[in-house]
Amino acid sequence: MAEAHQAVGFQFTVTPDGIDLHLSREVLKHIYLSGVTSWRKRAIRFKNGILTGVYPASPSSLLIVVIATMSTIYARIDPSLGMIDTIKRTMPVSGYMTVQTQTVFSAILFSTGLWLSLILMLRYTLKALLSYHAWIFESHGKISFCTKLWLTLVKMFSGRRPLLYSFQTSLPRLPVPRVDDTITRYLESVRPLLDDEQYNQMEVVANNFKKDQAPKLQKYLILKSWCATNYVSDWWEEYIYLRGRSPIMVNSNFYAMDLLYVTPTHRQAARAGNVVHAMLQYRRKLERGEHRMFNTTRIPGIETGEHTAACWGHNTIRLSLDFVQHLSDRKHLVVYHKGRFFKVWLYYGGRHLWPSELETQFQRILDDTTEPQPGELKLAALTAGNRVPWARARLKYFSQGVNKASLEAIETSAFFLTLDDEVHGYDPEKLRSLDLYAKSLLHGKCYDRWFDKSFTLIAYKNGKLGVNAEHSWADAPIIGHMWEYVLATDCFHLGYTEEGHCKGDISNGLPPPIKLQWDIPLEVWLLIVSNVIADDVDFHGCLFDEFGKGLIKKSRTSPDAFIQLALQLAQFRDKGEFCLTYEASMTRMFREGRTETVRSCTSESTAFYLMLNTVLDLFRKAADKHQNMYRLAMTGSGIDRHLFCLYIMSKYLSIDSPFLKQVLSEPWRLSTSQTPQQQLNMVDIKRFPRYVGAGGGFGPVADDGYGVSYIIIGENLITFHISSKFSSPETDSYRFGQNIRQAMLDIRALFDQKDKKEKEM
Q1: Is 307 among the residues known to form the active site?
Q2: Is the pTM of this model over 0.90?
Q3: How is the chain split among helix, strand and coil, in percent rounded to 5?
C-alpha cells in the first residue's frame, strides 16, 4: 500500500549509542517536491485572486497612479484638492514621522483610494455595457453603429487577459420580467395547443392571477433579486435538482460520447491514461478560478429531516435535501473494474502522473484477478436508486470503520473512472450500435457508475470513451467544454506509440493502486435491487448526413430554428397533434445564469406545418419567431423561470394559485436541447473530417414523450439523440428518428422548389 511504501523512507533504530536515523533520499526528494508544488499552487491562487479582485484594472496600475500622484505633488500641484493635506492632519501617527514622510504616506493612501474608486467605476461601466443586448436582435451580417461602438467600448474596458471569473462582478443581474409580459407570452405559447373554449378559460385564470395574486408575489421576487446574485439559480438548483427524491440515473444525469469515427488506440488502459492526464491538465487551468467540475460529489439527504448527513471533514450538518460537496485540489481518483474499487494517486514527486504512468496503474487494475468483496459488486447501485434509502443507508452503514474510509475515498476523489468490461462505440456495420452505446453511457448496468460524482469517465474494453455527468452542479455546456479539450488533447497533443501505448517513461517505485475495503452488511444488499428505469429507456441515435449547417445557412435561416421546426413537424406526424415543447437556452450573459426555456411550439410554427406544401413564407415567419423567442430567453425575458419563481414564492407565502399550479403541472412531451460546439479552434474539421464528436443526450422527461438532444457537427452532419420509454404505447424512438429525417428533407425540398422556380424565371 502507498502508506506502507512511504513509511519505509523514515526508519530509526535504538542502539546503546543512541538513536540511529535512516532517511531515504528518494522519499525526502518527493516530500520536498510535493511541498514545492503545494506552495506554488497557493501562490498562483493568491496571485490570480488579486488579479480577479482588481479586474478590469491590474495591480501594476496602482503603481502608475501612485507615481502620477507623487509627480504632481513634487511639481507643486495638488490633484487631491486638499484631501492629501486632510489625510496628513488626521493621521494618528503623524507625530512619529517627518513632514516629508507624512506627505508621501498621505499621497499613497489617497492614490490607493483613487485607484479603488476607478476600479469600481470601470466595473459599473463594464456592467452597464454588458447590459446592452440589442446586438443579439440584429439581423445576421448587419451591425448597427450603436453595436459597433458597444463592441469597441467593451474591448476597451475588458482588459487584455481576463481569468475564469474576472467578469463575474461585472456581469449584470438577471432581471425580473414584468408580470404582464410573462402572462402575455405564456398565453401566446399555449394558444396553438388549446381549442377556443380551453383558451378562454386559461385566459380568465391568467388574468385573475395577474390582477389578484401576482402583484404581491412580484414585489417579493423583486426584493429577492436585489438580495441574491441571481433570483432563479439557487431555487432552480434546490427545487429542480437537490430536493428530488427519485433516482437521478436516467431522470437527471446526462452523457457525452467519444469521437464518432476514430478510436486513437484500442488499448483500454492507454486511452484512459491519456484522457485522465488531459483532464488533469484541464483541471490545472481551472484551478485559477476553482470551478466545481472536479473534486465534487452530490451527497444524498433525507426528505423528512429525521436524520442528518455530515459532510466529510467538516462539521456542517445538512437536513432534508441533497447538497453538492465541493473540495479543493484532490490528489486521487477512484477506479471501478469488475466489481472492485481502487484508489489511484494522481501525483508522484509533486507532479501529475504522466500518461504512461497512468496507463501502468490502470493496467495493474485490469490485470488484478481478485474477486469483489461480499456486497461490493453492485454497491454503486445505491446511487442509482431512490435518494432516501441511499441517504439512510449512508448514515447507518457508512459512517464508521472501513466503509466510511472507502466511501470517503470515492466522494472526495477528483472524479470517478469505470474501466468497463464491455465493447461499445459507433459501428456503421452493426445495427443499433449507437443506441446501445448511448444506453451504456446513460445508465450502464446501473451499478458500474457512481452517479453522485460530478462526472464518471467510462473507458470501454475497445478503447472507446464516454462521460456520465450529474446535473445539479452545472449544465451540459460546462462538461462539453471540458470534453472538447480532452479529446483534442488526447489525439493531437499527447498521442500514442505505434503499438498503441501512451508516450513517455515510467518512474520506478510508483505506488500501486489501493484496493478499497468494505464490510457491507446483508441489510445493504437488500437495498440493491434491479432497476427497471434503465430497462424502460428506448433509445435511438440518428446520424443525419443528407445536409447540414452549410446548406441551411444558404437558405438564410438559423440552423437551430430549422431543426426545431423539423422536430415540431416530426412530433405532429408521430402523434397527430402538437405538444408543449421545451428547448433549453443559456442565460450565461447574467451573473450565475444557468438556463431558460424556449417554448418552440408557436402559432406561427403550427400554421406552417398545416400549410407545409404550399407556403414557404410561413416557414420564415415561424423561424423568425423562434429566433426571437430564443433571444428573449437569452436576454432574461423568458417565461418559465419567472413563473417557476413566482410559484415558489407563492408556496413560501401560503398563497394558493390555480394558474401557477396548472402552469407548473403541464408536461413537456417534447424536450429538446442543442449541444454546442464551443472550441472550434481545437480541431480543424476541414483537415481532419473524421475527428468529430457525437455529442450527448439525456433520458425522456415525460412518460409519454421524447427527449431529443442534437449537435450540429461541421457543415454536413447533424446527430440526434432520441430517448423515450418502452412502457409508453405512444412513443417509439426509432420511428421518431425517421420522422425527423423526413421532416428535415421535406423542409429542404421547399427551398429547392423555390430555387428551381427562381432559375426558371
Answers
A1: no
A2: no
A3: 50, 15, 35
